[in-house]
Specification:
heterodimer, A: 248 residues, alpha+beta, OB fold (Dihydrolipoamide Acetyltransferase, E2P), 7-stranded antiparallel β-sheet, 3-stranded antiparallel β-sheet, globular, B: 498 residues, Alpha-Beta Plaits, 3 domains, 4-stranded mixed β-sheet, 16 helices, Pus10-like (chain B)
Chain lengths: 248, 498
């Protein structure tokens, strides 16, 4: 008997009291269990992504517009092994951020491309973690500095670098600029295809013209907002050069 | 200056007996028996006056209608019996009968003329009796004070009510035909008497009048250019401009239980748009409010803390108080309380018990020491892997421990960022027999602890959390409040009325 006794027997829940409210019996709390209950992230956040220097970052956008900035699961640092993390980004230490009151007064104002933190990998590479959105810095996850390895182990969201609060009026534009989950998956697919394409072409020693075409746009995946910006920058540079030539 | 000389002069100016006593600086009960007071003060009571006053000032009997005499030049007849009668009739004709308050308080707004006339008489007495009359302390007991001493007790008695500062407030606005003219003159006088302070639009308040208009600051000669000294008697009496009633603030307390996981505490608005059709506050006020007041929207709902929209509140329920201003009723029968409880039950979402009127001072109980109170919860939690003996053992914590909790992200957009220490008094987890992923955890915490975040840890922002204690992910799917340790309001079983 002792061998077959359930070791958890002492811990089973019994719905004891039969309370009645508004003339209805109160149902046991266990009735509310849902095997497919969404996770905390799924319940309250929308996943968005931001690409910088071929590395993807995740923005968890809460229904109240608070944003958590994280590494996307595809971020190369996760494969390379995280070595160190610092919020001292050179000119300023983000971990010195202090906010006061409801309005989070005193929080650093960040732009999407402002560096939030510096991450180095075991392969010796340094990643400038971008802020991903324009907003006020509310909180940084200082625990990651002491234990950067947590980034590789923690469940989704818990490896957040920082919490940002965008202005209400900027929210629509901010979300528009970020990649949605769908666009992110599309991005992963194309970048993956291109990677394999690279491999195949090198293997099969394809014609030179094809190689050229690939070289002309290295790492360009024809995706997101980086191309229009690049095009604008190009046009602008040409304009400036033309003016410079004229003035000569 | 002898009392007799003073009274003789006042009589010659058309001043009534009560005001004569005011100028004799009679206090308190001395106004009850005028003749006796006159005698004690060494003043001979004129014969016609004796006759006039034998009925006493507070008797109900209506003497024969005498031909209208002119009214007192200083009080404009506020202390006359006729006026008292008019006042009582006016109050009774108002909604006065709708209020069952045992206590009343009067707030009488008097025409500015009374203050002007007081000043005028002050000048007159100075002229007549010289420097024995001070320039900066009034020669009389102020009318305001005399009204309190004389009129208030009479009105309370006639209406069969007690004086109570927190009772039904009867605001009476009095006017007199001479006021408009006299205030116009005052405006002109003010320009001359206080030229430096002339504003574009002179708004002379009663307070200013009281403070600045004294013989030490305004010359009698200046005053006399605009208004006569001494004040002349008037033919018309004061009249009632308006009577406003403001019922007392009544506090109704009870405990509520909440059965629905889709009901907010108070109306939930997001950018001005309603998110849920009803709320606890509205359901309770709808059933309780109309009995007490016509101004239901002015009722304030307070409770000892609050639960989230999706949290049930079971057990004995959560104490709450309604603050009902301008209430007609100051008590609640058990029968009526039961009917209200049953009306709330019909919502099928909220139930109330122990409904009762409580003293106003006690309503504070609900907010004091909120941080110290213990709250009892039951949480439905889900693991990702089946529970082990180790997990269950780690979640049996009979001793209290402290956690650090950052402001949850779900409220961070509208609350300051803080890390708050909170005490968890005990944790007791049990396992659902047919599902090893499901834990039912009973938790006792300090008020103000965010339970959902305590369970899953919110990305490490609450530490320790149940998740960090067991070293595995754990999420919360449902939460019930099962107890709030506040022994107030007292238990009252209204169903015993049946």
């Amino acid at each position: 008997m002792a061998a077959t006794a359930d070791p958890l027997e002492a811990f089973y829940f019994e719905h004891e009291e039969q309370q009645s409210i508004c003339g209805q019996p109160v149902s046991p709390i266990t009735d509310g269990f849902d095997a497919n209950y969404p996770s905390v992230v799924d319940r309250f956040f929308t996943r968005y992504y931001y690409i910088r220097a071929n590395a993807a970052y995740q923005v968890l956008y809460h229904s109240n517009r608070i944003c958590l900035i994280c590494l996307a699961p595809s971020h190369p640092a996760l494969a390379q092994g995280v070595s160190t993390l610092s919020f001292d980004v050179g000119n300023v230490d983000r971990s010195q951020n202090v906010v006061k009151g409801k309005g989070k007064k005193g929080g650093m104002i960040l732009q999407a491309d402002s560096t939030l933190a510096l991450l180095t990998t075991e392969t010796g590479q340094t990643y400038k973690i971008p802020s991903c959105i324009r907003g006020k810095l509310v909180e940084v996850n200082a625990a990651l500095v002491a234990e950067p390895k947590l980034l590789e182990q923690l469940p989704e969201g818990a490896g957040y670098f920082a919490i940002l609060l965008p202005k209400i009026e900027n929210c629509d534009l901010i979300r528009e600029k970020l990649l949605t989950q769908e666009q992110y998956e599309e991005y992963l697919k194309t970048s993956h295809e291109q990677d394999t394409e690279h491999l195949e072409t090198s293997k099969e020693q394809k014609e030179e013209e094809h190689m050229k075409a690939n070289k002309e746009e290295p790492g360009h995946h024809g995706h997101g907002h980086s191309s229009p910006t690049a095009a604008k920058l190009y046009k602008f540079t040409v304009k400036v050069l033309k003016i410079a030539v004229k003035s000569l | 200056m002898k009392n007799q000389e003073l009274v003789d002069y006042l009589v010659s100016c058309g001043v009534c007996t009560i005001c004569q006593l005011r100028y004799l600086r009679a206090r308190g009960t001395e106004y009850n028996d005028i003749n006796q007071s006159f005698q004690r003060l060494g003043v001979k009571v004129p014969e016609n006056q004796l006759e006039d006053e034998t009925n006493g000032i507070s008797t109900d009997e209506q003497p024969l209608k005498k031909p209208r005499l002119s009214h007192c030049s200083t009080c404009l007849g506020i202390f006359s019996e006729d006026f008292q009668r008019e006042l009582i009739e006016g109050i009774i004709a108002s909604d006065f009968g709708k209020y069952d308050s045992e206590g009343i308080v009067l707030a009488i707004t008097m025409p500015m003329s009374l203050q002007l006339r007081q000043l005028s008489m002050w000048f007159a007495l100075q002229r007549k009796f010289g420097p024995t009359v001070h320039s900066n302390s009034p020669p009389d007991v102020p009318i305001k004070e005399a009204v309190k001493l004389i009129l208030h007790p009479i009105i309370c008695k006639k209406l069969d009510k007690k004086y109570d500062a927190n009772g039904l407030m009867i605001s009476i606005d009095l006017r007199h035909t001479v006021e408009e003219h006299e205030v116009d003159k005052l405006v002109e006088l003010n320009r001359v008497a206080f030229p430096g302070k002339t504003l574009k639009r002179i708004e002379i308040s009663r307070g200013l009048l009281e403070k600045q208009y004294q013989p030490s600051r305004v010359k009698a000669e200046t005053y006399e250019k605009y208004l006569p000294i001494p004040p002349p008697a008037v033919d018309e009496s004061l009249s009632l401009k308006s009577i406003d009633l403001q019922g007392p603030m009544v506090c109704v307390a009870g405990r509520y239980r909440k059965l629905s996981r889709e009901l907010s505490h108070t109306p939930w608005l997001l950018q001005g748009v309603r998110q849920m059709e009803d709320s606890i506050e509205e359901i309770i006020i709808r059933s309780v409010g109309p009995h007490f007041t016509e101004t239901v929207p002015k009722i304030t709902f307070m409770s000892s803390g609050r639960e989230d929209v999706d949290v049930r509140c079971l057990g004995k329920g959560r104490p709450f108080v309604l603050e009902i201003p301008n209430s007609r009723h100051s008590s609640l029968t058990k029968e009526r309380a039961l009917a209200m409880e049953q009306a709330v039950d019909k919502s099928g979402k909220v139930s109330i018990l122990n409904l009762q009127v409580v003293p106003r001072e006690q309503a504070m109980h609900i907010k004091t020491g909120e941080e110290q109170k213990r709250k009892y919860y039951r949480a439905l939690c889900a693991l990702k892997e089946p529970a082990t003996l180790e997990i269950l053992q780690k979640l049996q914590i009979p001793e209290s421990f402290d956690i650090q909790q950052k402001t949850p992200i779900r409220v961070l957009h509208r609350r300051p960022l803080h890390t708050r220490p909170r005490t968890i008094y005990s944790v007791k987890a049990r396992l659902q027999r047919d599902n090893p992923l499901v834990l039912v955890i009973d938790i006792v915490t300090q008020a103000g602890t965010y339970i959902k975040e305590l369970v899953h840890g919110e990305f490490g922002r609450t530490t320790p959390s149940f998740s960090s204690i067991i070293g595995k992910p754990i999420d919360i799917q449902a939460l019930d409040v099962v107890g709030i340790d506040l022994d107030w309001p007292p238990e009252v079983d209204n169903s015993l009325s049946q």
